């Protein structure tokens, strides 16, 4: 998040997304990354749903578990299933967009 926030250290985010017949279901999880403030464990925790288009473009929604996190934290994932994806949050100031790639673990 940044040195000026209640969570100065990076928040380690884990995701698991299962895609079946272009439908996506999964979860997003953050353990707080050693930050002291209680809010740090609340951000980026919830469910992921959505679909993958025929062109490989993803349209995933993130539903946060915590009401505070819903105001500031991640709410969608966009991009290409075989390339770069981007985690988008409601508050860019505290949770800037984060680019990542998926790793296939099973067929």
Describe the structure.
With about 110 residues, the protein is mainly β. The chain has one domain. It contains 1 helix and 7 strands; from the N terminus they run ββββαβββ. It has a 7-stranded antiparallel sheet with strand order 1-2-3-4-5-6-7. A hairpin with an 8-residue loop joins strand 6 and strand 7 (about 100). The longest helix has 6 residues, at about 65-70. The chain is elongated and about 40 Å long. The chain starts with 12 loop residues before the first strand and ends in a 7-residue tail after the last strand.
Chain-wise SSE layout:
Layout: E1 13-20, E2 23-30, E3 46-52, E4 57-64, H1 67-72, E5 74-80, E6 85-89, E7 98-100
SSE ordering = EEEEHEEE
Radius of gyration: 14 Å
Q: Averaged pLDDT, please?
A: 91
Distance between the termini: 34 Å
Number of domains: 1
> What does the overall shape look like?
elongated
The count of DSSP E runs of length 2 or more, i.e. the number of strands, is 7
Uncertain parts: none
Continuous helix count: 1
Task: Provide the helix percentage.
Answer: under 10%
Structural class: mainly beta
For the biggest β-sheet, the strand order reads 1-2-3-4-5-6-7
Biggest sheet record = 7 strands, antiparallel
Percentage of β-strand residues: 35-45%
């Amino acid at each position: 998040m940044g040195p000026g926030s209640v969570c100065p250290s990076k928040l380690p985010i884990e995701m698991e997304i299962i895609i079946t017949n272009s439908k996506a279901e999964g979860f997003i999880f953050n353990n707080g990354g050693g930050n002291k403030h209680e809010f740090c464990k609340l951000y980026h925790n919830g469910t992921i749903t959505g679909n993958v288009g025929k062109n490989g473009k993803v349209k995933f929604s993130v539903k946060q578990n915590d009401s505070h996190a819903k105001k500031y934290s991640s709410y969608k994932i966009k991009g290409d299933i075989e390339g770069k994806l981007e985690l988008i949050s409601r508050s860019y100031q505290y949770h800037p967009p984060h680019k990542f790639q998926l790793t296939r673990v099973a067929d």
